[in-house]
Amino acid sequence: MESSRFKTRMSEEGLKSTRQRAEILEIFLNSAGHQNLGQIYARVAKTDPKIGYTTVYRTLKLLTRLGFAAQRKFADGETRYEPIPEGAHHDHLICLRCGKIIEFEDDHLESLQNRIARRHGFDIFHHRMELYGYCRQCARKKSSIRRKG
Amino acid sequence: MESSRFKTRMSEEGLKSTRQRAEILEIFLNSAGHQNLGQIYARVAKTDPKIGYTTVYRTLKLLTRLGFAAQRKFADGETRYEPIPEGAHHDHLICLRCGKIIEFEDDHLESLQNRIARRHGFDIFHHRMELYGYCRQCARKKSSIRRKG
DNA sequence: TTTGAAATTGAAAATCAATTTCATTTTAAG
DNA sequence: CTTAAAATGAAATTGATTTTCAATTTCAAA
Ligand SMILES: [Mn+2]
Ligand SMILES: [Mn+2]
Ligand SMILES: [Zn+2]
Ligand SMILES: [Zn+2]
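^ Those are the sequences you sent over. The predicted structure of the assembly is below.
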């Protein structure tokens, strides 16, 4: 379970396990990804209204540092968080009309990135790759609007 | 010249040409890319201390809207601007140690992005692709440090 | 268990870049 | 020219993020 891995990592770092951290992790892992702090806090507050916004903020920051969460800042400027399964990685397709966020992994893309980096003498640690456009549904609506008007 | 293209675009949009806008564009185009507002303002103020920070802010926003500039927000969170030659596009390699920013273009990457998008039914308008790691010089330093200690 | 140093919490305050306000000045069409 | 609309610049506001600090909780050691 993630919660025990979290406890282990915390004690490794000399951090303490608290009811608040456990609840926040629990709620975070059982929610959809790509939520902003306000949305995460709202869920937490619904379960335990005593937990402060600041604690949610600090816990998400901690989860990010320990690799349980990823902070994302897409082009709309909002800061979102999503749970990250151990060692996993993915990139994003983002719909500019309805806001839908699709995740993808592509080995060719990863190796092409490494090739590009090597060509420039870079040693790559991580990357960010986001594709912005219209999702299938929105592209369909858009073109039907064009046909009519 | 870019400045006449700028005037044309401004009048097309019902905007007025001003000394301030002309000076800011001139300075912006003749500086290195990837500068933040403070840096751009500092240069502008050196030439004409009467021009306000707000005007530089608004002009960069305008240049971005009209396609003369691109606003970039890399992972360090700073907002930077760079001049964009008409219709051009490039992506970035960013050194996590010295901050160096290298630009690259790669047709395979562009077409692979389109293939990935199509696979998910997306119609892509633009994208963001940043590779983070150590540049040649910094990677070299890092490994020599490792050898010694 | 008890103890107590260190860590955590949460409300409030501070920070700080981005944006807006508004009185004044400038532009450019007629 | 005249004049309405746009632009300017200093100051104020906004809003998300981060820090502060007094009170509370955790947990290792006694
Ligand atoms: Mn994701
Ligand atoms: Mn660039
Ligand atoms: Zn959509
Ligand atoms: Zn470097």
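Strands of chain A lie at 35-36, 69-73, 79-83, 91-95, 101-104, 123-134. The longest helix of chain A spans residues 53-65.

Shout if you want it in another format.
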